[in-house]
């Protein structure tokens, strides 16, 4: 027996599972498996470097088209260069702000939306500067779109990595691209099935806002305590089914059997049951 084991430990030794004692060395120190290093940070740095290269390439393409258009309109090379660089510089600024917020686990919806809006401005300027035809439009407009997809995806991945690093649960959050995709899908459904789409939209609005924005519906009134007669009629319905199908010649026998269970007078129960049966046959609720 190793010297590190005391008398008390020796007394408890028989109850220690063999699977645990097999991991214990002669020194009494449990063997700890070697943890594998987390390489997600390295891959994120590589992705960020790739995004910088992609942003530079997309900015060069966008700047060329925007500079030509601005210089043709203003005839001032310096001003045209500044104006052509504004959308891409704004997109880069908002992307950096989104990454900074994502490192703190924030969704950065405003920064991401403004990043996409800046890219949209660049795409619009490239589209109106391109020559007529789908081929020329794709050549000038697709590079900024690729940057938008890459930058927004990187911000989402950085947020998930930051939450995992701090051991916080990463909840699925709607991104600007996901919101745009959902809107396009809803518009497509509206074109294919307008009636059912509008009916579902109306039901959703009423469910989300039953009264008015910022207002809550009035609480339902507290139900009054059920009377003896109501409890008696409920017992009759539970044991004999619908009152409309109950024969009138059985009213007396049922009242005599169930009235005491509801602490109701037999005569009053018989009168109430007869009225309820007749009302049910005439289209009443029971």
Structure description:
- 67% of the residues lie in helices and 0% in strands.
- Helix 3 (40-74) packs across helix 5, helix 4 (77-102) packs antiparallel against helix 5 (109-129) and helix 4 packs parallel to helix 6.
- The longest helix has 35 residues, at 40-74.
- It is mainly alpha-helical and 286 residues long.
Uncertain residue segments: 1-31
Structural class: mainly alpha
Shape: elongated
Q: First CA to last CA: what distance?
A: 83 Å
How many domains? The number is 3
Q: Brief overview, please?
A:
The chain folds into three domains: 133 residues, no CATH class; 37 residues; 54 residues.
List keywords for this structure.
mainly alpha, disordered N terminus, 0% strand, 67% helix, 11 helices
List the helices and strands and how they pair.
Elements: H1 7-12, H2 18-21, H3 40-74, H4 77-102, H5 109-129, H6 134-165, H7 176-192, H8 194-208, H9 228-240, H10 251-258, H11 266-281
Helix pairs in contact: 3-4, 3-5, 3-6, 4-5, 4-6, 5-6, 7-8, 10-11
């Amino acid at each position: 027996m190793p010297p590190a084991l005391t008398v008390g430990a020796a007394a408890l030794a028989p109850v220690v599972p063999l699977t645990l004692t097999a991991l214990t060395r002669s020194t009494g120190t449990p063997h700890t498996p070697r943890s594998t290093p987390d390489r997600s940070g390295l891959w994120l740095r590589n992705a960020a470097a790739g995004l910088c290269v992609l942003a530079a390439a997309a900015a060069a393409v966008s700047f060329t088209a925007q500079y030509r258009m601005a210089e043709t309109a203003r005839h001032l090379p310096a001003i045209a260069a500044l104006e052509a660089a504004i959308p891409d510089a704004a997109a880069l600024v908002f992307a950096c702000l989104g990454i900074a917020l994502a490192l703190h686990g924030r969704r950065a919806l405003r920064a991401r939306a403004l990043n996409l809006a800046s890219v949209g401005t660049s795409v619009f300027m490239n589209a109106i500067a391109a020559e007529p035809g789908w081929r020329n439009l794709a050549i000038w407009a697709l590079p900024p779109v690729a940057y938008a997809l890459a930058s927004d995806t990187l911000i989402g991945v950085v947020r998930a990595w930051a939450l995992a690093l701090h051991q916080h649960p990463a909840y699925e959050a709607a991104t600007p691209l996901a919101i745009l995709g959902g809107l396009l899908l809803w518009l497509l459904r509206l074109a294919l099935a307008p009636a059912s789409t509008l009916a579902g939209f109306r039901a959703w609005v009423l469910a989300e806002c039953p009264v008015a924005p910022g207002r809550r519906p009035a609480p339902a009134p507290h139900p009054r305590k059920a009377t003896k007669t109501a409890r008696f009629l409920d017992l009759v319905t539970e044991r004999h089914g619908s009152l409309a199908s109950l024969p009138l010649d059985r009213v007396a026998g049922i009242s005599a059997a169930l009235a005491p269970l509801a602490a109701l007078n037999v005569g009053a129960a018989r009168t109430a049951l007869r009225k309820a049966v007749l009302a049910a046959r005439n289209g009443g609720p029971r």
